[in-house]
Each structure stands twice: as C-alpha cells, then as structure tokens.
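A.,

Following up on our hallway conversation. Structure tokens first:
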C-alpha cells in the first residue's frame, strides 16, 4: 500500500455491530474477573477492595494488549508476511506463554522504584496509590489507542505511580533521578532504534537490492542476516524474556546465542538456496525470503514482551493483594497465579478485540513496509534493548519499535533525494546530447562549405558563432549551470518533495509520547483523591 493512498484524516464511523461485540467481550472479561476474584477472596476482610483493584488490573491488561503488542507484530502485518488474524493468534499465544512461563514469581510493587515506599504513611495510602496508578494508566492507554497512538505502557504506569505518590506524600516522595533516566529514555530509545533499523536496511540494499544479480547475492546475505537475527533474539530472550527462569550475564547469553546462530546459518543456508533458485532475481522475490524470519521475530518479541511487560498490569495489583493480606507495604510482592492469569488473559483479550487498530498504525500508516524493511525493524527492536541494557539505559520497547519504523521511512526519503539527483542528471545528459548533436551538425556544415571553391564569408561567420555558442552551452551543462523548462523543474521538485513518512502520524505520536507521563500523573492524582474520599470513614 502506497503512503499517498492513506488519508490523513480518518473517517469517523458510527457505533456499529462490531463495536458492540467488542464492548460486550470486554465487559464479559471484566465480569468474569470479578466473579473469579470474589470466589478466591471470600474470606478476606477487604474483599470488595480487592475486586475493584482486580477490575482495574484487568482493564489495564486489556489496554496493554490493545496498544503495546502492536509493536511486536505490526511490521510483519504491514509487510504482508502474515495476516492480522494470524498475528493476533501468534501474539496472543506467545504473550500469554511469556507471562505465565517466564513472568516470574516476584514483582516490584512500585514500578522502577519511582517513589520511596518509606515515605508512604500506611497500607491504605499505598493501596489507594496503586489503584489510582492502575486506573489512570489504563485510561490513558485507552485514549491513546482510540487516537491510534502507540505509547509506552511503562511510562504510563510510572506517571500514574508518581502522580498518585505526589498527591499522597508530596514531591519529595518521587525519586527524581529515576524520572530523569526515564525522560532521557524518551529521546534515546526512538533514535537508537531508528539508526539501527536504517543501518540494517542500508546494508541489505547495498549487498542485495543494488546488485545486478539479486538472487545470487541473497543466497549469501540472507543466511547471514538470519544468523545475526538468531544471535540477537537469543541474547534478548535469555537476558530479558527468560530472566525469571534463568539468570545469566551478557557474556554467557551471547556465547549461547552465537552457538545457536552458527546452527541457524548452516541450516537456513541450504533452504534459502533452494528457495532462491525457484525465484526471479527481483526485489519482490528477495522479499519472500524474509517471510519466515519475520514470523519467528513476531513470536519471540511477543514472548519477551509478555514476560516483561505483564508486570505493568499485575505489578500494582500484586502489590495491593500483598498489602491487603500481610498488612504491610513491601517493595517486592509474590505474584499469585490468579493475578498472573488476570494479566495474561487480559492482554490476549485486549489484543484480540482492539489490537488490530494499532497493528495497522504501526504496520502501514507510518510508512510503507515490505518484508525487508519489517525485518530491519524487528532486528532493531532486539538489538537496541540489548545495547541499552548493557549501557544501563531504561529504554521503552514501544519507542524503539516505532522509532525503527520511522528510521526506515526517513532513510527511504533520503535515498529518494539521491534519486532526484539522478533525475536531474538524466535531464542534463539529454540536453548535453542535444547540444552535441547541434555542434556536430554545425561543424559538418562548416566543413562542407570549406570544400566549396566559393565560400560565403557571412555564412561561415554565422556558423562559427553558432559553434562557439554551442560550446558555451555545453560548458555550462558540464559545470552545472543549466536552463530547464518548467516541466523539468517540476519533475525534479516532485521527486525531492515525495514524502514516504506520514507527517501527521509523526506529530501525533510525538505529542502522545511527550504528554504520557504528565497526563497519567495528573489523572492519577485526581483518582487518588477520589478514591481516598470514597474510602475514608
């Protein structure tokens, strides 16, 4: 799909049957959550409070599924390597598997240590803070999804915790150093993701796409790219996705992944050669070689996301449950299976009902993606997290993935400008050929006159003048001074101005990123006072 075919202003549609079914599905999930938690907490004194907290947690999980998961599967869908239905199935299975298998037994009750628990007066205050944070983050994600803006759920939770914490205990409760790191990550995440994705795309273009025999080049380069993908995703999964199952350092994870990469290289090489022999030496054919790696990357990214980001939904809920059952505020809380289940199922429900909208946004409404470009985005997502974790930077997976998509798009625009230079050079060559033909014609006429016994001096003078004039024009063409017609100027200008990145999407997403923490914080502060006002005797 070409970018020019996408309307900047989306059509507003009335509430229809599909919307009603989606709402019904979401309500059914919330009601089932209420019923399930009420049965589990029948002997708990604060049963109603826990049920309300579980509703907030389930609502938050649905919004994570609707908004955040799109970053993992959107590029694969946009490149048509997989359908939206297939993406939802794959992401749903691996998100849930990541949460339930590698989500861990213990979670931080206060995300990223953003507030000091020692300054919180009592367990009731802590519970109100966590409930306000959950609700505000969920509502902000819901609004962002409605507007089609992929935002960081981690930043939404951080903003919610900080806002409610400030409302409860003042500005001193916030660890402003941590906040500074998070703000820094807003900048570094998308830029790092964009640069890495653009670098991979440029490498593939120079080693495959720009080669005369693309098919033979692909036989050599694609297995290498699969090996690099295996190493990066292996390291990423071991360090981030499976850290609750096995805890190893970067060096060990890297060595294990190198071994896996070597196996992947030799096993994929023969398969790629067989596939390539059946294809034409065209870009479209080379794209097909990246289909299966893209599907694997979507599954692995979803697994790692489920293992890590489910804590955004169930971390505060686990903290509330721990505070209600123990009567104390803990920095770490054990995650009961039912809490993890609410988070995992909620993410899958939100993805299934409302995820396709953001999947389309990331996959096709920022810039046009084919399989090669989508592969570069997936590679960037894994490598950027690895680099950032080694540098100690708290990056956002959402910002990385979206930044990678923009990086690919802006590289294409940059290369388009080079194409504009090529158009100008073609026009210059045409004019040069025309002037050279005239010069040869005048020289031939002058030689013909020279062979005659009687030569008209005036004709010779005119011919010499025309020859000198053509030499001057040719010199100007070589030196870059060339007179072009309006049509030619418009042709070059049109190529230079051809935008391959949707500017309206860029502005909307940047605006959403900038206001996520303050917006979630303000909402959370308001909800804290509301909850406290309702629950105080």
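Then the amino acids I'd put at each of the 537 positions:
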């Amino acid at each position: 799909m070409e970018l020019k075919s996408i309307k900047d202003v989306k059509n507003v549609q009335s509430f229809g049957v599909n919307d009603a079914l989606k709402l019904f599905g979401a309500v059914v999930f919330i009601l089932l959550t209420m019923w399930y938690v009420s049965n589990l907490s029948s002997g708990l004194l604060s049963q109603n409070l826990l049920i309300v907290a579980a509703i907030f947690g389930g609502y938050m999980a649905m919004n994570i599924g609707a908004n955040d998961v799109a970053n993992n599967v959107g590029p694969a869908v946009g490149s048509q390597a997989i359908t939206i239905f297939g993406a939802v199935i794959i992401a749903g299975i691996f998100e849930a598997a990541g949460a339930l298998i590698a989500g861990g037994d213990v979670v931080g009750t206060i995300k990223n240590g953003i507030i000091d628990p020692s300054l919180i007066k009592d367990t009731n205050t802590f519970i109100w803070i966590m409930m306000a944070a959950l609700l505000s983050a969920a509502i902000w994600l819901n609004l962002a999804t409605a507007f089609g803006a992929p935002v960081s759920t981690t930043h939404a939770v951080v903003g919610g915790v900080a806002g409610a914490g400030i409302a409860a205990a003042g500005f001193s409760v916030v660890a402003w150093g941590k906040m500074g790191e998070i703000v820094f990550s807003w900048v570094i995440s998308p830029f790092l993701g964009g640069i890495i994705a653009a670098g991979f795309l440029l490498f593939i273009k120079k080693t495959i796409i720009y080669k005369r025999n693309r098919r033979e080049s692909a036989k050599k380069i694609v297995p290498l790219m699969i090996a690099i993908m295996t190493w990066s995703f292996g390291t990423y999964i071991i360090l981030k996705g499976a850290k609750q199952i096995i805890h190893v350092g970067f060096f060990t994870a890297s060595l294990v992944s190198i071994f896996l990469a070597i196996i992947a290289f030799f096993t994929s090489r023969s398969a790629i050669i067989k596939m390539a022999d059946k294809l034409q030496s065209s870009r479209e054919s080379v794209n097909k070689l990246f289909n299966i790696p893209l599907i694997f990357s979507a599954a692995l990214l979803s697994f790692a996301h489920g293992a890590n980001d489910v804590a955004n939904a169930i971390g505060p809920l686990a903290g509330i449950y721990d505070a209600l059952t123990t009567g104390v505020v803990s920095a770490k809380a054990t995650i009961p299976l039912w809490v993890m289940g609410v988070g995992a199922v909620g993410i899958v429900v939100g993805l299934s009902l409302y995820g396709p909208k953001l999947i389309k946004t990331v996959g096709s409404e920022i810039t046009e993606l084919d399989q090669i470009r989508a592969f570069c985005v997936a590679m960037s997502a894994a490598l950027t997290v690895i680099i950032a974790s080694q540098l100690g930077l708290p990056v956002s997976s959402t910002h990385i993935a979206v930044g990678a998509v923009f990086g690919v798009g802006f590289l294409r625009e940059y290369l388009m400008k080079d194409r504009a230079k090529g158009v100008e050079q073609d026009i210059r060559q045409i004019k040069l050929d025309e002037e050279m033909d005239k010069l040869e014609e005048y020289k031939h006429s002058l030689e013909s006159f020279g062979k005659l016994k009687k030569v008209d001096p005036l004709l010779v003078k005119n011919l010499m003048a025309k020859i000198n004039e053509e030499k001057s024009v040719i010199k100007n063409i070589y030196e870059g001074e060339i007179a072009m017609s309006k049509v030619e100027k418009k042709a070059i200008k049109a190529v230079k101005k051809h935008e391959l990145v949707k500017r309206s999407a860029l502005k909307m997403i940047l605006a959403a990123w900038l206001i996520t923490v303050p917006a979630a914080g303000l909402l959370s502060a308001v909800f804290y006072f509301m909850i406290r006002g309702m629950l105080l005797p």
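DSSP finds 17 helices and two strands in the chain. Curious whether your intuition agrees with the design.

B.
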